[in-house]
Amino acid sequence: MSSADRILVIRNRDLVPLLPEPVQAAEQPWSGVVLERHSVKPMEIPEHEHGDLCLHLQLSGDSDFEWWTEGKNRVETTAPGSMIVLPAGTRDRLRWTGPSDRLLLSLKSNEIARLAEETTGSPEVNFSPQWSATDSGLRNLLMEMGRQVHDGWPLGSLYANLLSLDLQHHLLRKYAGGAYKSPVIKGGLPRPQLRRAMEFMNEHLTTDLRLDEIAEELEISPFHFARAFRSSTGQTPHQYLLDRRMDEAKALLRHSAASVGEIAVRCGFNSPVNFTRAFRERVGCTPTEWRLQAS
């Protein structure tokens, strides 16, 4: 795993990983986000500075930890579900007194600044450090991201992009000092744009589409496209694309002799396992079972 794929901090003027090698390392299909899972032993992290916003979600363990920042010092009592939210520019030192499993996520400052400017007119975002946050919405988002990484992103880049957008909206709503209000998109996409979006997705059923690729085709931002598409159709772009892939898979299962593995590739899935999982969740049975029932 290269340093570019790690959560990095500044320590003694050097850019170094925040924690040792993670338990799980995998290529991740999103921009500006890095997620790592760690089993942390009792340890101290020397003073360092965060160049990007950093989140910790504690998955297991209930030992106290101690932090130092800006002349302040405190011991926090933790439990599974406890979270730390540290904005870019935070300079701190940490000490864990016991073992824990945790998800760590970093988010590039320019990503969240871009969304803030698009939705509020200003890229300025002021977060305050949160050393013991309890936030079920943020916890659920991070847990879903962790599941997707663990499973090899079976739902693809489009779903990854939507999760990243949801994360940024949540952070802005909850931790940007109350100045952010998520705008309401009224009226959805104009009919020509909606038609082109659907055509584009149907033309690329075999590829792992990214949200920004579809938005670029329409010459609008990913944020506006995701919200307006849902307003128009009642579905997220990911849900629509998955429905279309299931329709295509059923047609191939019924009318061709292609194997399940071949159909998986032709419908944009990166493995037969991920295709079978998605098909079962969406249709209620495996592709092979469906083919037998339809014959």
TrEMBL record:
InterPro entries cross-referenced by the UniProt entry: AraC_XylS_family_regulators, Homeodomain-like_sf, HTH_AraC, HTH_AraC-typ_CS, RmlC_Cupin_sf, Tscrpt_reg_AraC-type_HTH
Domain HTH araC/xylS-type: 195-293
GO molecular function, one term: DNA-binding transcription factor activity
Pfam families: HTH_18 (PF12833)
Tagged with keyword DNA-binding: yes
Keywords: DNA-binding, Transcription, Transcription regulation
Chain ranges passing through the membrane: none
Keyword Transcription among record annotations: yes
Name of the molecule in the record: Helix-turn-helix transcriptional regulator
